Amino acid sequence: MGDRGTSNHSEVTDFILVGFRVRLELHILLFLLFLLIYGMILLGNVGMMVIIMTDPQLNTPMYFFLGNLSFVDLFYSSVIAPKAMINFWSESKSISYAGCVTQLFLFALFIVTEGFLLAAMAYDRFIAICNPLLYSVQMSTRLCVQLVAGSYFCGCISSVIETSMTFTLSFCASLAIDHFYCDYRPLQRISCSDLYIPNMVSFFLCSIIILPTIIVIIVSYIYIVSTVLKIRSTEGRKKVFSTCSSHLGVVSVLYGAIIFMYFIPDRFPELSKVASLCYTLVTPMLNPLIYSLRNKDVKEALRKILGKKLFLFNSILTENRIK
What we know:
323 residues; 10 helices; 76% helix
């Protein structure tokens, strides 16, 4: 994989993921940090899905979206984190061509799906707060399924276009990707092809994905805020703002990092890696924490599950003592 001038994409068998340009001893610290965060992602998102699926009281549109959000967070972080952790201990830091294609495709699919899910959740809160009497009618099971299916469909279509455009490029030099996972911008840096059309396609995709979802979220929350300000009860205002601030916090972290990564000129690769951490690992870790710690229904469902487990454990201990 040395310098060979130009390599057509059909000849490439491996790429090298450079990762973070830090001293060797810091790799251990980064590995432990990634391991801790990924462990919290697994525990938090699997736990959230289990709670939502097992508690009948959480069988509502809001928790249907939240369960899918946890599923998406779990899988797109799993596309990135395990390989990154392996590469902290690997000398070659290589990833196969097929592995790189798969990683980019799955990551693009799930990150776009998350954007549309967050927009659907904002719309759900808008209906719940601004039109509570019509909530059960407007947010029907059919509509919820259609919104989630549409989110995955849009993610799949955009991912197919982005991935196919990226891997029709010709690659050159050392094939070393200056990133900790396969992303289209770092891949473009090692390409010898004309990037005008791929850049236009990427900009178009970002525009039709990010702008509409942000508009839906902003408009929904403008109506929500105007409705909340009309509530005379201070307790009522706090309850609504508590629910909505969780969602806004997630949206701010995710979209802030994505806009920095894909809309600002690519001049600082190391800073881009830090921004990437926000939506590849930090957001999936924070989502279940934010939605569970600030949500009475989830906390109550968790108490019920833990109570049943403790009761079962005590029953087994009692039976063993009797025997």
